[in-house]
Design goal:
Growth Hormone, Chain: A
Length: about 425
């Protein structure tokens, strides 16, 4: 559901902006609002999931996604759709945190690599099918179905929780660092909005500047709150684990490359007069490997997780460089194939490697922090690319994503042991 809600919405943006009243500048925010609030709410959702009935928390999140999906299809204008997508992002954060907390409550550490290998296969398949399914849904019933379909899946998931155990953890205190989690959410939301506005036409400098100041003030407050909190919202002990931290950055870089690629490559293909057949091949090369390769990736990662992840990150960086040199259709197909292969061979690998270090009783917090780092970096990459593209053109967006992948590769090489198993 989540990949369809992200990659599917990306594919639907042109149709939505063409049919709904409102400025075209709101189009990218159909994706950014969802991603931004998803990332901003994950930490708070994870802490809440650990202290509540995890299954019920997961179900409530799905209900929020279902309701906002239906309402999105009825949106009278772009502004209302963006607002609903932001609420849907909060519901998705509840689903993600609750679902990960449920898995980590059931499976012991030695089985999590296998479990997340399967989860990677499911997510990879959804990522691959997202744009394709979105095109089919738009052909059948218009862009509205792109938002209704994830809502239907969410409703089914909520119903499927009936009869499952609550998986409540009675060992954790009922109170937690609400102020810290809320301030972190403010930082992410303000920073994403500032980056997304960037240097776009008609944006006065003081608007993103004010948002940066808000993010900085919230960050200052967060440092003070976390120093005084007996149980900080941000589990710093997990962040001190180099491998956990590095793999969170890596998976965020991969997802950033994907969402930026889904935005940029179709634009470049259209500019190069690629036909529908070539465009479909390019999209397939970018997404299909994520369907068929995650289980193979899980096997490779048993012995070579670190070289697999770093090689894929560096390859993504090279593809960004290629696009700065040429936009030839053949180059676009090669870039799509290389990025797709890198994404397919790393689906679920960083997740499984990092969450191996998380104790089961802190599953929600550990998984939420990992997902928060991933979603934050993915969203910051997309927001930064959106702002830069408004000033410099589409290829500059891939340059931003490639630079993030290069930094992530350096972090993994320096932080993860050579034989991380």
């Amino acid at each position: 559901m989540f990949p369809l809600a992200i990659t599917g919405a990306t594919a639907a943006v042109p149709d939505v902006t063409a049919q709904l009243p409102g400025t075209d500048a709101l189009g990218p925010w159909i994706v950014l609002a969802y991603n931004g609030l998803f990332a901003a709410a994950l930490l708070l959702a994870g802490a809440t999931a650990d202290r509540s009935a995890r299954t019920r928390f997961f179900a409530v999140g799905n209900i929020v996604v279902a309701v906002t999906g239906v309402l999105s299809a009825l949106s009278p204008n772009l502004l209302s759709l963006v607002a609903l997508r932001a609420v849907a992002g909060v519901g998705a954060a509840m689903c993600a945190a609750g679902g990960s907390s449920m898995l980590l409550a059931v499976y012991p550490p030695e089985e999590r690599r296998r479990v997340y290998g399967y989860a990677g296969a499911v997510l990879g398949s959804s990522l691959a099918l997202g744009p394709v399914v979105a095109q089919v849904l738009m052909a059948v019933g218009g862009w509205q179905l792109v938002f209704v379909a994830p809502g239907v899946v969410a409703a089914i998931a909520a119903l499927a929780t009936r009869g499952l155990p609550d998986l409540r953890n009675h060992k954790l205190p009922a109170h937690f660092d609400l102020a810290g989690a809320s301030l972190f959410g403010v930082i992410v939301a303000a920073a994403v909005t500032a980056l997304g506005l960037g240097f776009g036409a008609g944006v006065r400098w003081w608007t993103p500047g004010t948002l940066v100041l808000i993010a900085a003030a919230a960050a200052t407050g967060l440092v003070r709150v976390e120093r005084r909190a007996s149980d900080p919202a941000i589990p710093l002990d997990l962040l001190r684990i180099p491998a956990y931290r590095a793999y969170a950055v890596a998976t965020g870089a991969f997802m950033g490359m994907l969402v930026v690629g889904l935005t940029v490559l179709p634009q470049l293909g259209s500019a190069q007069s690629m036909g529908p057949g070539e465009a479909a091949v390019m999209l397939s090369l970018l997404t299909v490997p994520s369907t068929v390769l995650p289980l193979l990736a899980a096997r490779i990662a048993r012995r070579w997780a670190r070289p697999l992840v770093t090689t894929a990150l560096l390859a993504c960086t090279v593809t960004a460089v290629i696009l700065q040199i040429t936009h030839h259709p053949a180059a676009l197909l090669v870039v799509a194939a290389v990025v797709g292969l890198c994404l397919g061979l790393t689906q679920g690998v960083p997740d499984g490697q990092a969450l191996h270090y998380v104790p089961s009783q802190r599953g929600g917090a550990g998984a939420a922090l990992f997902s928060t780092a991933r979603m934050s970096l993915e969203t910051f990459t997309l927001a930064g690319a959106t702002g830069v593209m408004a000033a410099l053109g589409p290829t500059s967006g891939m340059a931003v994503a490639g630079a993030v992948c290069l930094v992530a590769a350096v972090i993994v090489v320096r932080a993860v042991p050579a034989r991380d198993t």
